[in-house]
Amino acid sequence: MPTLPSLRPPVRGAKAVPSLQKLSLPASEAVVDCAVYVCGIRQPGRWTHAGALAEVRRRGEGFVWVGLHAPDAGQMTSVAETFGLHDLAAEDAVHAHQRPKLERYDDTLFMVVKTVTYVAHESIDTAKEIVESGEIMVFVGADFVVTVRHGEHSALGTLRASLEADPEQLALGPAAVLHRIADHVVDSYLEVADAVEGDIDALEEQIFSPRTNVDIEQIYLMKREVVEFRRAVAPLGVPLKRLVADRSTLVPKEIRRYFRDVDDHQTAVAERVAAYDEVLNTLVDAALAKVTVQQNGDMRKIAAYAAIITVPTMIAGIYGMNFEHMPELGTQYGYPVVLVVMVAICGLLWRGFRRNGWL
């Protein structure tokens, strides 16, 4: 059915509201840095991603390194068309929350690594978050590297500067950038593991200290954060091992040797994180046992005081039945005698419970 034109007259002075789908920023808005490297040396000038790739292919040597931060679909499509990236990989680069992985699309490697940073806090008792994760996606081709970052703590500016200060390493090509990123991420895992270990030690000391209250919610918080940490570290082992065994021209032999060292460090961190998980399981059991013991102690105190209070309650109940002929009702000293008897019995009960550790 054809759409009828609107018969409502336009409002004077009203501005047309553009469609949200048309408000796509250019790819340059997502580009953090773009550079051309020849023989490991950064070439002077400011480049667009398309201009940098054209310059490299005109020279017939060197490579391009384009860094993006949280691009949208339109921006990533522009970059993917320029560098010939696969649609599926480009889609993964836009949508975060990917698992660490390594995929090959024709002559391009696509690797995803999870970044982790430690969230500083004054005390483990007041912490709301222990670790924060982000992602870095890396596209590696014969003459280009495209890095896509998600998260505020995953900046690569310092890493790029350190690589530019080492032209010999950078001259090995795009795979050298991939290695340095993986090495940087795994090194950050080691730092986070050390910090998390300190928090776990603090929890352990608190739980096994006598006469301390146990907040089991903090143990569950720590366990949740360790699970998030493990999801970043453990799956990375398979991509690194594949890179060590890669025999393609994209990963030279010299770089594979470096990846072997990164793989060793990743394995060590993965083992430490697995150990943290086991320790936290033990701490959960210990905390539950301690809470149970505390509850049993509280129940014994309640039962002891209830037994003590039962004596005056029973005597007062008996003499409150208002019968005319009851023993000792007419006795002159009946009232103080009953009070003394109640206090004496309650005192004996309190002493007995105290001796047995109930009070």
TrEMBL record:
InterPro entries: CorA_cytoplasmic_dom, CorA_TM1_TM2, Mg/Co-transport_prot_CorA, MgTranspt_CorA/ZnTranspt_ZntB. The keyword Transmembrane helix applies. It is a multi-pass membrane protein. SUPFAM superfamilies: CorA soluble domain-like, Magnesium transport protein CorA, transmembrane region. The chain crosses the membrane at residues 302-321, 333-353. Keywords: Cell membrane, Ion transport, Magnesium, Membrane, Transmembrane, Transmembrane helix, Transport. Pfam families: CorA. Gene3D superfamilies: CorA soluble domain-like, Magnesium transport protein CorA, transmembrane region. It is found in: Cell membrane; Membrane. Mediates influx of magnesium ions. Belongs to the CorA metal ion transporter (MIT) (TC 1.A.35) family. PANTHER family: CORA FAMILY METAL ION TRANSPORTER (EUROFUNG) (PTHR46494). NCBIfam families: corA. This is Magnesium transport protein CorA.
